[in-house]
């Protein structure tokens, strides 16, 4: 099930876009992936969702969660 709080960074014909999960159209399009990541990270923080960064091949290359993470790291004391 799609979570609209999550933001994906995907390559588009005219640049890199920020896309809400489950959406069809990019919210914004930028010239560089770095610009899209900055904007997407802010969107994910505001919605307490997850930032999902896709590479040029469309595969997920990184994730960054914001908000309540139900799985704390194992090395936590």
Outline the structure in words:
By secondary structure, the chain is α+β, with helices and mostly antiparallel strands. It has one domain (7-65). It contains one helix and five strands; from the N terminus they run E-E-E-H-E-E. It has one helix spanning 33-47; strands spanning 7-12, 15-20, 28-30, 50-54, 60-65. It has a five-stranded mixed β-sheet with strand order 3-2-1-4-5, covered by helices on one side. Strand 4 (50-54) and strand 5 form a beta hairpin.
Strand content: 25-35%
Helix share, percent: 10-25%
Backbone shape: globular
Question: How does the helix and strand content classify structurally?
Answer: alpha+beta
- Count the E strands: 5
CA(first)-CA(last) distance: 33 Å
- Biggest sheet: strands, sense, closure? 5 strands, mixed
Order of helices and strands: EEEHEE
SS field, number of helical segments: 1
Strand numbers in spatial order across the main sheet: 3-2-1-4-5
Radius of gyration: 13 Å
Highlighted features:
77 residues, 5 strands, alpha+beta, globular, 19% helix, 5-stranded mixed beta sheet, 1 helix
């Amino acid at each position: 099930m799609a979570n609209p709080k999550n933001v994906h960074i995907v390559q588009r014909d005219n640049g890199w876009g920020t896309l809400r999960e489950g959406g069809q159209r990019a919210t914004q399009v930028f010239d560089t992936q770095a610009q899209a990541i900055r904007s997407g990270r802010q969107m994910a923080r505001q919605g307490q969702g997850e930032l999902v960064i896709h590479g040029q091949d469309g595969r997920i290359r990184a994730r960054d969660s914001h908000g309540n993470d139900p799985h704390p790291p194992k090395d936590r004391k």
